[in-house]
C-alpha cells in the first residue's frame, strides 16, 4: 500500500510539473482590438505585439484565417524571439472597391513550434465592409437557439455575412422540396449540399441556429424592392421599414390575396394576424402583432399569386 501511494504521489507531482512548464512556455499577444468599419476602397493600419514568455528562443509564425484573410496583410510572417523579447507586427487592412459590403471575420494567430512544446494563441479580427456610397449599417440580433430572420443587408456570401461561424452552427433556407442548410466546417469554411446556397440575399428569410447570442452588423441595402407571393404558404423576409400590416399589404373586401400572416415568437411558437374581408380589417389574438418589422421573417398564406412593393 505504501509503494502504491508513493507511486501515485510521484505521478501527480510529475503531472503538476508538466503543467507548470507548459504554463511558463509559449507566446502572448497584445495590441489594439482588431475590429474596424472600412468602406469599399478604404484601408486601415493596425498592429499586434508578440511576446516570447518562454525560457528559450522561439521561431514565431503569424498568420490570418477566415474571411478576414482576404483583407489583411501581415508585415512579418516568421521571425525569432529570444526569451522575454517582443516584436511589433504591422497589420494593413485594405478593402477593394469591388468587395461586397458585409461582415468579414476571422483570427490573427501567432504560433511557435520551437522547443518540445508547440503553442499558439489567437486574437479575433473583424471588418465591417460598408458601401462607399454611404448606405449605412444596421444590426441583426440573434438569440441562442433557433432564429427566424430576414437578411436586410446587401447580398453577401456566407463567409462575408456570417464570418467563420463563431456562435452560428447552421443556416437554413426554404426550398421547393423543403429546407436546405449550410454549415461551417473548420478548415473548409461554409458548405451546403445545395451548390446554389452560397449567399444570403436581401429580403430572403433564414432560420439561423446559434450556440450563443450574437449580433451581426450589416451594410443595409437600398433601392426599391418587391415581394412576390405565390398561392399557398410563402416564407418571406421583411427588408422594408417597420410599418402596420395594413400599410404593408393594402387589401379590400373585393381584393384580398393574403389570408393570414404568421410570426415566430422567441419561445418558438407562432402567432397569426388574419384579414377579415367583410370587416376590411386585420386582427390578431396578440395585441402586439400590428406591424411588420424590419429584419423579421413571416409565413404568409395566400389564396392567389400577388405582388407588393416594400414601403421605404
Word description of this protein:
Strands 2-9-8-4-6 form a five-stranded mixed beta sheet. The model is unreliable at about 1-25 (pLDDT under 50). It has three helices and 27 strands. A hairpin with a 6-residue loop joins strand 8 and strand 9. The termini are far apart. Helix content is about 10%, strand content about 50%. It folds into three domains: about 25-130, Immunoglobulin-like, CATH 2.60.40; about 135-220; about 225-310.
Radius of gyration: 26 Å
Q: What is the name of the CATH architecture of the largest domain?
A: Sandwich
Mean pLDDT reading: 82
Number of helices: 3
Strand order of the largest sheet: 2-9-8-4-6
What portion of residues is helical? 10-25%
Q: What is the number of E strands?
A: 27
**Uncertain residue ranges:** 1-25
What's the CATH superfamily of the largest domain, by name?
A: Immunoglobulins
Separation, N- and C-terminal Cα atoms: 81 Å
Number of domains: 3
CATH topology name of the largest domain: Immunoglobulin-like
> Per DSSP, what share of the residues sits in E-state strands of 2 or more residues?
over 45%
Task: Set out the fold topology.
Elements lengths: L1 H23 L2 E4 L3 E6 L3 E10 L5 E9 L5 E3 L3 E4 L4 E9 L7 E11 L6 E12 L6 E6 L2 E6 L5 E2 H5 L5 E8 L2 E8 L3 E4 L6 E2 L4 E6 L3 E6 L6 E4 L2 E6 L5 E2 H4 L9 E7 L5 E7 L4 E4 L6 E2 L4 E6 L3 E4 L3
